[in-house]
Write a structure and sequence with these properties.
alpha/beta, D-Maltodextrin-Binding Protein, domain 2, 331 residues, 10 strands
Length: 331
């Protein structure tokens, strides 16, 4: 009898946590539902999370979202961060949260200017009024100043209204390649000149997933399941039929127009936002120690971080670079 009980206990301990049903976990996004979140909603719509043993609840973000605080305080299990900044800032503060995947290989931010005004390159933008969101002013501005010679007198606040940029032909606007250029063309009647930061030496990862270090230690199988299912979701969204994910996006955010979603997917494909660089050989979500170190060095030189941060405290490569879902990419 004792031997039978011992065997039963061993078998119980060997069964995955989701054997009794999918594990409920909360994933927080960094903004209102949009195409930049497409792979997550696609994975939910297609049942990919459930196929990996997870019951994922997506908690939509917005203007007041503080993702770093949400994941650090356990309000969400996974948190989407728009870049590498948050993970390194948490490491600097010795808060045990790490990045486990980066679903955008290129930062989608762009600097835009009016055509025909002689403001076509980063260097030509010096001295011109530059509209940036509050978040970009805090995190990105110091880098832009050091890298391209911009100065503080150029800065203007961008409150997500396009009219000030459209009306001022000498101004420059920081936005996202997947949204603002298309909206400017619709509202302003012209195509802006676009410079993608990811193609101009900015090594920032984007669509980064933050997780408490404790969860990585104690439940790595759940983290792996989330990363794998999400990678598959992004392959389906970028190369398959994005309609299921888009339906959930528009349900969560009714103000999101279908044409904006369609354009964003097209632009993300054209510019390799999701799938380029390392992801072409390692799979969507790929990261490298070299790139994290390069980004930290650049930001430290720009004065964003204090010297002495160990970049290895900000991320782990345990769950990525495994080529998961690559068979879904068209040949």
């Amino acid at each position: 009898m004792k031997r039978l009980i011992a065997v039963l206990l061993w078998l119980t301990a060997s069964v995955p946590a989701w054997a009794a049903g999918p594990v409920h976990l909360v994933f927080g996004t960094d903004w209102l539902a949009e195409a930049e979140h497409g792979g997550f909603y696609e994975a939910l719509a297609l049942g990919l999370y459930k196929a990996h043993g997870l019951d994922i609840e997506i908690k939509m973000g917005g203007p007041q979202t503080n993702g770093s605080s949400a994941v650090a305080n356990g309000q969400v299990d996974f948190q989407l961060s728009s870049g590498s900044f948050a993970a390194l800032a948490l490491a600097e503060q010795k808060i045990p949260v790490v990045a486990v995947a980066a679903f955008f290989q290129k930062d989608p931010q762009v600097l835009m200017s009016h055509p025909g005004e002689g403001i076509d390159t980063m260097e030509q933008m010096r001295g011109h009024p530059m509209l940036l969101s509050p978040g970009a002013h805090v995190q990105l501005w110091e880098y832009l100043k050091r890298r391209f010679g911009f100065v503080d007198t150029q800065y203007r606040p961008y409150n997500f209204a396009l009219a000030p940029f459209i009306l001022d032909k000498k101004s420059v606007l920081l936005g996202f390649i997947s949204s603002e250029p298309y909206l400017i063309e619709k509202e302003g009647g012209f195509k802006p000149v676009v410079n993608l930061l990811g193609d101009n030496g900015f090594a920032n990862y984007s669509d980064v997933i933050l997780v408490q270090a404790k969860m990585v230690r104690e439940h790595p199988e759940l983290v792996q399941a989330f990363v794998d299912a999400t990678a598959e979701g992004w392959y389906h969204y970028m190369y398959g039929d994005p309609a299921p994910g888009n339906a959930l996006i528009r349900r969560a955010n009714p103000d999101m127009a279908q044409d904006v979603l369609d354009n964003a997917i097209k632009v993300m494909r054209e510019h390799g936002i999701v799938d380029s660089g390392d992801s072409l050989t390692r799979g969507i979500g790929a990261m490298s120690a070299e790139r994290w170190a390069e980004f930290l060095r650049t930001m430290t030189e720009a004065g964003v971080y204090h010297p002495g941060i160990d970049p290895a405290k900000a991320y782990t490569l345990q769950f990525v670079n495994k080529r998961v879902g690559m068979e879904l990419r068209p040949k």
